[in-house]
Amino acid sequence: MLTLAATPVGAGAPAADVVVLPPVFEAHSSPAGTYVLEIRLREDANPHLARATATLFRVTSSKRQAVWTRELPHRPRPRFFAVGDGGQVVLLDEWLNIRSELAVMVLDLAGCTLVQFDLEAVRAALGVPISALAPAARHGVWMQAPPVINARGDAVEVAAANRVLSIRLSDGKLSAH
Question: What is this structure's pTM?
Answer without folding.
Answer: 0.88
